[in-house]
Design a protein that fits this description.
Number of domains: 1
Radius of gyration: 17 Å
Mean pLDDT: 83
Low-confidence stretches: none
Strand content: 15-25%
CATH class: Alpha Beta
Largest sheet: 8 strands, mixed
Shape: globular
CATH architecture: 3-Layer(aba) Sandwich
Distance between the termini: 30 Å
CATH topology: Rossmann fold
Number of strands: 8
Order of helices and strands: EHEHHHEEHHEHEHEHEHHHH
Structural class: alpha/beta
Strand order of the largest sheet: 3-4-2-5-1-6-7-8
Helix content: 40-55%
């Protein structure tokens, strides 16, 4: 069975897209057939994976509405083992989400069911805050990764993100699991970062990835390169961090923790 992993946070700017793109690319470089699904109307994951934002042809919008097949909207990326369902910037609007809402919140899960025998991993990038597209992504997923920026506001938002996941597990996706919490934008020696990482390790240690993503100039330049760090700057510390994350995910996927609470 394929592993469908949704990357989610209620706070923007915590590294969701960077994590989604580089995790997907690192899995692909380990010769895992990987599909990156861009579920953010900004289309940043598509661009960062080497897909032109103004690409012509059908996109996730048509696929989610059942107009096109998976094969018709999947495009090649900057790596032979990585394919992308693109979301060119501005192609999805609020009225599109409304149209989907009148249909069903499981439309993405239904659409991705056709990928069962085609990919080893499916990574879904999402928008913040969670809208209907993101809800569809969570319902479609087997597991979730929560990037947690090492700053106070992101830490305070973590509880809201987990509550959303618990509710989806309760009502729409009982098999949903938490793959882990990924600490991002860590400044070693900086007081706030050290306090956040200490607190999270104290209270949520068993849910955390061992890998920590430090703040990096190379990561900030991702949008300029239009290629993942693990491909464009393969020898850097930042790239190695994402290879480490991919290794953890591969090790974890056969035994991900069923650790989202069921509320009575």
């Amino acid at each position: 069975m394929e592993q469908i992993i949704c990357v989610i946070s209620q706070k923007g700017g915590v590294g969701k897209t960077v994590t989604s793109v580089n995790l997907a690319a690192a899995l692909a470089m380990n010769r895992k057939k990987t599909l990156l699904v861009d579920c953010d109307p900004q289309g940043s994951a598509s661009a960062s994976a080497g897909i032109h934002r103004n690409i012509s042809g059908p996109t996730l919008k048509q696929g989610a509405k059942g107009i096109c097949t998976l094969e018709e909207i999947t495009v090649l990326s900057c790596h032979e083992f990585l394919k992308v369902i693109p979301m060119p910037r501005g192609i999805f609007h609020e009225d599109d989400e409304f149209d989907l809402m009148q249909g069903q919140k499981t439309c993405l899960r239904t659409f991705l069911s056709g990928a069962e025998d085609l990919f080893d991993y499916i990574i879904i990038d999402t928008a913040a805050p969670a809208g209907f597209l993101t809800l569809n992504a969570i319902i479609a997923a087997n597991a979730v990764i929560i990037p947690l920026q090492c700053e106070l506001l992101a830490f305070q938002t973590l509880r809201l993100t987990i509550k959303i996941l618990e509710q989806v597990k309760l009502t729409d996706n009982p098999g949903l699991k938490l793959a882990g919490i990924l600490l991002t934008m860590y400044d070693q020696g900086e007081d706030v970062s050290e306090r956040i990482i200490k607190s999270v390790r104290k209270h949520l240690k068993k849910y955390m990835f061992k890998t920590v993503i430090p703040r990096s100039t190379q990561i900030r330049e991702l949008s300029i390169w239009c290629k993942p760090i693990v491909i464009r700057k393969i020898g850097t510390v930042a790239a190695q961090n994402y290879f480490d994350l991919a290794w953890e995910v591969m090790q974890m996927c056969n035994s991900v923790k069923s650790n989202l609470k069921k509320r009575n």
